[in-house]
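Q: My collaborator sent me two sequences in one message, no labels, and asked for predicted structures for both. Can we handle them in order? The first one she listed is below.
A: Yes, handling them in the order given. First sequence, followed by its structure tokens:
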Amino acid sequence: MTAPLPALPAKIHPLVRAFLDTRDALEETMVRFGSPIHLVFPQVYAENLKRFRAVLDLHLPRYRICYAHKVNQSRAFVRTAEYAGIAIDVASPQELGSAIGAGFGSMRIEVTGPKGEAFLRDLIDCGVTINVDNLWELRRIAELAGDRAKVPVLLRVSGFDDGSVSRFGVPLAHIDRAFDLLSANRSRISFLGFAFHIDSGEPAERIRAIDACLALVEQAYGHGLMPSVLNIGGGFRQVFTSDADRFDGYVLALREALLSRGEQMSWGNNTFGYHVDGGAVHGIPVFHKYANTVPATKMLADLLAAPLERHGGRTVAQVAGDNMLELWLEPGKALVDHAGVTVARVEFVKELADGTVLVNLDISRDSVTPADQEVMIDPIVLSSSAHDSDAPVGDGAVTPLRSAADTAPTPHPMHETGPVAVYFAGRLCLERDLITNHKVWLAQRPRPGDLVVFPNTGAYHMDLSAATASMHPVPMKLAVAHRAGSFQVYRDGDYEPHVSVGLPPARRTPPRGPHRPPVPRRPSHVDNEGAP
């Protein structure tokens, strides 16, 4: 039996798969709006939120979910969060404006990250909760507040691990100075509690931070302060791969290739963070997070059920409940997981002198990758039916979604068949604009006009590094919804969730103001009775 080709198969949400499988749906969207495009699926976001809430409802009497806006600029996601009744975490004046424009009131907005004086003035005027990053911020808030209503603040702390330094938050070593400022300004500042954000997904680090913050709560009581909130931040992981064994097999082959064993699997001298020494491959690769198989909901459940030694083995949830602390969370990735894909067209395919095959697309690397990371899941090539001489006129535009490495190709006249290894290249005149620096095996050689789908790009991939180099505009963002048996595609700014199902209002949140649902403007409509 022939060994399967190296592959990094992506996990695809059934609703996204149904849209990509629908004949004509994707091509109609591309013709109408152009290429490349980002597609977001707010109903997938709503499902993720529902699962997240279910875990919290099981463990906690009081909590607040603050959607981390920075994960994606999509208004459709923000409107879905607002309609669901959760809060939002913003980190810039522009994100604040986006949240307010989407209907969030000041009671449901938290502001994190470093802030300059002008931004602080605006935040105080708005009456939102300020997650204080440093002592200067805290001091200026007290000075700027004047005799107005108290400014609600959380104090972000850091320094839980002596061997790790963070550029964010007030170090534990400076906490007494923070207590002095809070105590001296109780008439101007309403101190809600403590916050932290752990960049690592390791449970032990988060538990250590929670335990340290619980100790700070006890210290705060001694300063006449009454904290009632513990904000544990975000950082809940995503699951990208649909087959962990094949992912591990690909990485093993890649490591072997770095030792000059077997076929070359990376562009140029790219080692993805590994280093070769003494005939062995060492280090942690830059793509390690794509190997994760633990969903965010399990990570959250395990955290809430973790015992705290200093509290007699009671769980995190029990200690929070016993001390009447409201747990706040700032999920971003966990809520948009599998709720976004990016689609581009093949412009041309070329072969280099050494036989390397490049598939050039009408998109650049910065539109589908977060910063310098390598996205270790395979793009999906959808062959255009324009290449199929047997396809009737007006019939579907793309072949059904399939795993390229596992599917026998359908022969096409004058077209090379059989598996082919390629690199996907971007549209910029820069050597570094390689969308994949790792080799991707496809069932057959792509052709101009074919569509390439990059799965699960909703979290940071779409926006974090997006640029307008060579005056190329950033890809348009569209929202896809399945309603009444058909798919509808909206400009992102036009999407409204009020006719969707599965979004009950949140409990334990203040009522919203009058809801004024605008009428969606000109959705693209594709019948599909078989979609979930």
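Q: And the one she listed second?
A: Here it is, processed independently of the first:
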Amino acid sequence: MTLWTKNTFSQSRHKHREVKSDIMDLTEPVLICLGAAVAVYYGVKLLLFNRILFPKVWFPLAKTFLTSTGEWAVVTGASEGIGRAYAFALAEQGMSVVIMSRTKVRLDQVAKEIGDKTGQKVKVIVADFTKENVFSEIEDQLRDLDIGVLVNNVGMLPSYVPSRFLECAELEKTITKVINCNVKTLAKMCKIILPGMENRGRGVIVNVSSGVACIPFPLYTLYSASKVFVERFSQGLHAEYRDKGIIIQTVAPFGVSTRMAAYQQTNIVTLSPEDFVKSSLQYLRAGDKTHGSVCHAIMGWLLQSIPLKILHAESMLHNLRDYVKKKTALAASIVASPSATFENGRKK
């Protein structure tokens, strides 16, 4: 080996040691920064979870907050379930309520119950939101009311039993009905009521979505997609009008014991409509989207953390369909029983 070669080799080894030393010197601060980033990330997660655990501490509401927005609250789909519970809760807060649905007999009964229990005024508007032209009459009946709260609750499932898109009965009609009820109604009711809120500089709009909208949800494809619209529309609208003093919020529940959920037995996960609404109202100042309760927020995080390959596996979809079929059949048999009576979605 020549002297020049030996010198070159020595210089190369020396430079290699210097590069290796520089890398070692950088490793420690990189790891420290990475660890700090992870700590901050999970610290923020913990803080957000803490906010969900204690809404009364983080998002306090004055007792007169809702009544300060206006005299009247409007609730769609108010003849039963979550809508009925919202109407009762708002009346108990001192608001007069407009209840809307397609079944007059049920609406009249709910109106009587609210009036008897709370002493508040109740206005009934009969409307089938699956139809095309129902909003001009609604607008006329709401024109002179000081409306502080709107709850867009009305919604429909294409089928109670989960099914593939092309398996849905009367698919063409069903598409139109779902879009009219779940999408068009939301936008139209905001168009009718939001201008008055903007003029007065106050108001609350609650748009009821669904937990199934947080991921692509096979067998509920049309329904979950319509609820994605509810969330995006609400979030965009909130950004546009929050500086006007208006709260616009999506509420995305999972299990609530209603007819749509086959009146499942209430438990820590499946809440009664009354318990869910009471909980969800505590999060009115929590931002443009909430799941409405601690347990449903946890369910949302869990569902989004599971790989879609697992959730979309054929075996999972098959088990989901069988489970809902059994629950729906059981609920139908209970409702059909001559001795069966229900109170707040639960058998007495």
